Every structure is written in C-alpha cells, then in structure tokens.
Amino acid sequence: MSDRHFDELATRFAEKIYGGAKGAIRLAVLQADLAEALPDRPLRVLDVGAGLGHMSLWLAQRGHQITLAEPAAPMLEGARQRFAEAGQSATFIQAPWQELLGQLQEPFDLVLCHAVLEWLAEPAAILPVLHQLTAKNGWLSLAFYNKDALIYRNLLKGHFRKLRKEHFAGEKQSLTPQQPVDPRELATQLAAYWQVEGRSGVRVFHDYMPQQFQAKAELIDLLEMELAHRRHPSFEGLGRYLHWICRPR
C-alpha cells in the first residue's frame, strides 16, 4: 500500500464531496469548531493535504495567513482558482507531507490535516511531522474517516460477510478511503505528541438517514441538527468523520 493522491479524481472528488449536503455539513462542523477554539487574531496557517482549499479559503477570509500544501496538481490548481475568484492570496506548495519539513522554515500557529490520514500507507508516520510543523502554543485541526462509523453503517446494511473479513478499504477507484482510522488506536498514537482538547462528530446522523428522508430534509435544518448533536456523548462517535482539536505537549 502507498499514499494515495487524487490527480485523476479531482473533479469527481469536488462534485461528490462538496456538491451537496455532505460537504456542507462537513464544512459547517469544522468551521464551528475552529471558530470556537481559535483566538481572535491573525494566525499563520498550514493546510496539509489541502485539496481544493475550501477550509483554507474560509480561514483566509477571516484574516489568517494561509499556506496550502497539496501533492496532486489538479487539486492544487483548483485551490488556486478558488482563491483567485475570491480575491484572496495564499502560498501554494505542491508537495506530499514527507517533503514539508525540508521546505518550511518556521512552525505554524494552526495546522490543518483534514481527510488525509485515511489515505496514507502509514498514518501514524505523519504525526511527529505535524508536531514539528506546529508552534508550541499552536493548534492541530485533525479530521479523519471514522472506522467505527463504517462498521456501524455496514451493520445497518447487513454486510456481515464484509465485517467478518474485516474488509474496510475502498476499491481502487472508489472514494471510500483505503485505511479507515480506528479512533482508539489514533488516540494512543497521538498521546506522545498531542493533547486532544476538543472532539466533534461530522455527520453524526445524516449518512444513516434513509434516502427518502434525506431528500425531504432542508439543508438549514440538517446543519442546525448536526451542529447541535456533534458533541453529544452518544452520537459524537458515530460521525462519518471525527474532528479533533489538539494542542502540542
């Protein structure tokens, strides 16, 4: 297994992830969490695996200084275009995470690492690098594809054979991640570098709704309910993604 990038899937990725309620909910939860956690002053921000730059653009519009690092050229070009259309400036680096320490001289106040771990051959290997890239008093915003939610969804569908085989990886051309993250394993791996200060679930109920109910629901109501229940002790762990706000040890 090797790290997977999205050169050939950039357009499909954009349409599938951010073209509907799933993407809107994801952005709403991440933005709400960061708005609550971050101080009201300009920060130096690094977005590792920035994709099309949705989160980075939101932060740029709030006055922060942004550096986007993305290994896939089509994705990075899409981010450039998004920033240009919004009249925002940023630094764009086409590089995988393994090359960032050699290219960046100073740590950042905030490091974003969203939907990256689950596409890596060795997810734990990036954690010490993220630690070095983050200032001592900084923040890490870590969002990852939740293995527990994938198991639960397969239970609801009756896919018991898949569960017995522990076959969780997506197919080669699928947008289901190749290595869903076990939150307990990640918490153990993080402990040497980070203190997790905030936890939220992203799409704690939307993805489990029958399609006919999804189709009837208004987006404004979905957003309200997802935000209201993202930290509920019974529902947070069911999020399709989990978002953890971490501080360096």
Automatic annotation (TrEMBL):
SUPFAM superfamilies in the cross-refs: S-adenosyl-L-methionine-dependent methyltransferases
Binding site for S-adenosyl-L-methionine: R26, G49, A50, E70, H114
Database matches in InterPro entries: Cmo5U_methylTrfase, Methyltransf_11, SAM-dependent_MTases_sf
EC number: 2.1.1.-
Domain Methyltransferase type: 46-141
Pfam family, one: Methyltransf_11
Reactions listed under catalytic activity: 5-carboxymethoxyuridine(34) in tRNA + S-adenosyl-L-methionine = 5-methoxycarbonylmethoxyuridine(34) in tRNA + S-adenosyl-L-homocysteine
Biological processes annotated in GO: methylation
Molecular function terms, GO-annotated: methyltransferase activity
Family: Belongs to the class I-like SAM-binding methyltransferase superfamily. CmoM family.
Function: Catalyzes the methylation of 5-carboxymethoxyuridine (cmo5U) to form 5-methoxycarbonylmethoxyuridine (mcmo5U) at position 34 in tRNAs.
The name this protein goes by in its record: tRNA 5-carboxymethoxyuridine methyltransferase
